């Protein structure tokens, strides 16, 4: 870890049917999409994510939080917090959250910029959305930083 910000991060774009994953490389400098996980029950999904985080020596797991436009937490956020609770039961790795608002839209836009067709974008969008979540985590001010 450098300063107050973990370098090896696993990001999670939690979804009811598909969960996208992205991570930094071992040096913490490059962000890469990982294969998405198709729907598993919360306990199996949490165990799979915990195993991936441990295998990658992740210092933190960042989960995208689906906040409403007013910044409040609706039912989707409550559902995601329940999943985070399941994840906390199977790993000692710290878990943080960041606002994931419009991350899937941004993922589709990025993929479109590279000329990737809609059918292919749908398969990759969840993990690219996780990359967006990871970038948002890394770009927010570090704890204790002066703004």
Textual characterization of the structure:
- The model has no long low-confidence stretch (mean pLDDT 83).
- The chain has 147 residues and is of the alpha/beta class.
- It is built from 4 helices and 5 strands, in the order βββαβαβαα.
- It has a single domain, classed as Nucleotidyltransferase, domain 5 (2-Layer Sandwich), CATH 3.30.420.140.
- Strand 1 and strand 2 form a beta hairpin.
- It has a 5-stranded mixed sheet with strand order 3-2-1-4-5, sandwiched between helices.
Throw out a few tags for this protein.
147 residues, alpha/beta, Nucleotidyltransferase, domain 5, 5-stranded mixed beta sheet, 4 helices, 5 strands, 21% strand
* CATH class label: Alpha Beta
In sequence order, what are the helices and strands, one letter per element? EEEHEHEHH
Q: How many strands, which pairing sense, and closed or not: the largest β-sheet?
A: 5 strands, mixed
Total number of helices: 4
Share of helix, binned: 40-55%
CATH superfamily: YqgF/RNase H-like domain
N-to-C span:
21 Å
Mean pLDDT: 83
Number of strands: 5
| Oligomer class | single chain
Reported CATH architecture: 2-Layer Sandwich
Stretches where pLDDT is under 50 for at least 5 consecutive residues are: none
């Amino acid at each position: 870890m450098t300063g107050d910000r973990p370098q090896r991060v696993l990001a999670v774009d939690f979804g009811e049917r598909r969960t996208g994953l992205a991570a930094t490389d071992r040096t913490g400098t490059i962000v890469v999409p990982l294969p998405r996980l198709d729907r598993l029950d919360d306990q199996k999904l949490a165990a799979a994510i915990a195993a991936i985080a441990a295998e990658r020596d992740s210092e933190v797991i960042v989960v995208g939080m689906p906040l409403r436009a007013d910044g409040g937490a609706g039912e989707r956020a409550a559902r995601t917090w329940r999943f985070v609770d399941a994840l906390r039961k199977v790993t000692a790795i710290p878990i943080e959250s960041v606002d994931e608002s419009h991350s899937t839209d941004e993922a589709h836009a990025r993929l479109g910029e590279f000329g990737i067709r809609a059918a292919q974008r749908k398969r990759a969008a969840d993990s690219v959305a996780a990359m967006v979540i990871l970038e948002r985590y890394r770009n927010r001010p570090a704890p204790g930083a002066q703004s």
